[in-house]
Design a protein that fits this description.
With about 100 residues, the chain is mainly alpha-helical. It is built from four helices and three strands, in the order αβαβαβα. Strand 1, helix 2 (about 20-25) and strand 2 (about 55) form a beta-alpha-beta unit.
């Protein structure tokens, strides 16, 4: 599974997940697991598609202005998936 396929599913189901949860799914356990996953989307455009990956502290994407976010993200509906294990389980049940 790659970043875009995870984000596509998050966007389709309007589910937020933290940078750490997404990074934990993408990266093997080990030395990389401790890396700062806030840089996960550094090369991705700031647009509504990628705005479903958010910070753990406030549930919003880093560095985005309101116009760059999906309106449902800004409304902060639903829960935020905060762990890789929960995100993996969620991804298996939301194909």
């Amino acid at each position: 599974m790659d970043l875009d396929s995870i984000v596509e599913r998050l966007a389709r189901y309007q589910q937020r997940a933290t940078y750490g949860a997404v990074g934990g799914v993408l990266y093997e356990p080990g030395p990389v697991a401790g890396r700062n996953c806030g840089n996960l989307l550094a090369r991705c455009p700031r647009n509504p598609f990628y705005s479903w990956v958010v910070r753990a502290d406030d549930g919003l994407p880093s560095g985005y202005v309101r116009e760059e976010m999906d309106p449902a993200v800004y409304a902060r509906r639903g829960t935020v998936i905060r762990s890789a294990a929960v995100l993996e389980q969620w991804l298996r049940s939301h194909r």
